[in-house]
Specification:
38% helix, 3-stranded antiparallel beta sheet, 15% strand, disordered N terminus
Length: 384
């Protein structure tokens, strides 16, 4: 199995969707496939480029400037659905349109090795949003539970699936109470890993069965977690040096809201909050999925952590989650206070270790790596 290597020459394109193709027949096929997808979604008239070569070996599609100005002024994607008449919360087709439109409007080039990989990336984002909307968990920072009919735990290997238990079904049972009838204890970070892994596995089931088999074997042997998970499975877009626009989000993005309060960030699990952007101006809420966060409610939620800490019997700082909920509910009825808090929190975060004038907004977003047999850049530990 060969891991795909991007073109050696740097791309001279800075926005929209880009496909690398050095051979004319491949370029023609890629152009036709992407244009067919845009046509099927009714988006063709909104797009510039439609696959014309902007540089040797590169195809590009972007959203027309007047559409960006009308639907995403200032590259603010929160109101895209309302402005463009999309119902992405109830329509999978409109959610798909929202994903495409935000990719096309990207201020940084989203480069793919093939049209097929682009379509897979859109589909994985769809899977992420759909799974995040169904996920309900019991938040816990020091305990963890999984369905014992398909998961087992050892300290050295983490939670692994029992041999013969399909990974996709095991992930669904662990995160979606409709499938298990239970709520299981998770941290928000681990929850995002399970949803991302589920989307990758679902796409692999459709387009790369060998990768799904490798994922199954991996999770029967040893879980990939935390920094290693990020390294193996995710691509990070944006940085402290080159931040993404503060209001620019694509459905399916994994997002970190940093706790900018020095004192309360010392409580384990409250250094920040990991969520997914669901589209339509909403962020996932794994603890009360029927109350997804808006930007304002998420800013208020993280802000009120500073007002909800207390020392336990051992003198350890803990978070009173009931108090957080009460404070958030009260604050959200006070428009002036919501505005004040949002203005304070809706700023790019400070660097790690710094607690100054920065807010809770991160400079980057995370999404899955490529998955197709010819172009995947996922390298599992011990896979080769």
């Amino acid at each position: 199995m060969t891991v795909f290597t991007p073109l050696a020459a740097p791309l001279q394109i800075s926005q929209g969707i880009v496909i690398q193709s050095t051979h004319q027949p491949e370029a023609d096929a890629a152009r036709q496939l992407v244009n067919a997808e845009l046509h099927a979604l009714g988006l063709t008239e909104n797009v510039e480029g439609t696959g014309c070569s902007a540089a040797l070996g590169v195809l590009q599609w972007t959203l027309k400037k007047d559409r960006v100005a009308a639907w995403m002024p200032g590259l603010n994607t929160f109101d895209l659905c309302e402005r463009a008449g999309l119902q992405s919360r109830s329509s999978a087709a409109d959610l798909k349109r929202e994903i495409w439109l935000t990719l096309l409007a990207s201020p940084m080039a989203w480069a793919f090795p093939s049209a097929e990989e682009l379509i897979s990336a859109v589909r994985m984002r769809l899977f992420i949003v759909q799974a995040a909307r169904k996920t309900t968990l019991d938040f816990h920072t020091s305990e963890a539970e999984r369905p014992n009919d398909c998961w087992t735990y050892q300290e050295k290997t983490g939670f692994t699936v029992l041999p013969g238990s399909p990974l996709i079904e095991a992930l669904i049972k662990a995160t979606q109470p409709e499938a298990s009838g239970m709520l299981y204890a998770f941290s928000c970070y681990r929850a995002t890993e399970y949803i991302l892994l589920l989307a990758i596995a679902q796409e692999a089931q459709l387009s790369n069965p060998a990768l799904l088999a490798a994922l199954q074997k991996q999770w029967e042997t040893r879980a990939v977690m935390s920094g290693r998970f990020h390294e193996v499975f995710l691509r990070e877009t944006g940085s402290m040096e080159a931040p993404l626009p503060i209001s620019y989000y694509i459905p399916g993005d994994r997002v970190w809201f940093r706790n900018p309060d020095d004192a309360s960030s010392d409580v384990a699990g409250f250094e920040g909050s990991w969520v997914f952007y669901l589209g339509g101006g909403q962020f996932s809420n794994f603890w009360q999925r029927n109350k997804p966060f808006t930007l304002a409610s998420k800013c208020v939620d993280v802000y009120q952590w500073r007002n909800s800490t207390a020392l336990d019997a051992n003198g350890e700082l803990q978070m009173d989650e009931e108090r957080v909920e009460q404070l958030v509910d009260t604050t959200m009825t006070q428009a002036a206070e919501v505005e004040r808090i949002t203005q304070r929190m809706f700023r790019l975060r400070d660097p790690q270790g710094v607690y100054a004038e920065g807010g809770c907004m991160d400079t980057s977003r995370e999404s899955p790596r490529w998955v197709l047999p010819e172009t995947t850049d996922i390298v599992l530990p011990g896979m080769y």
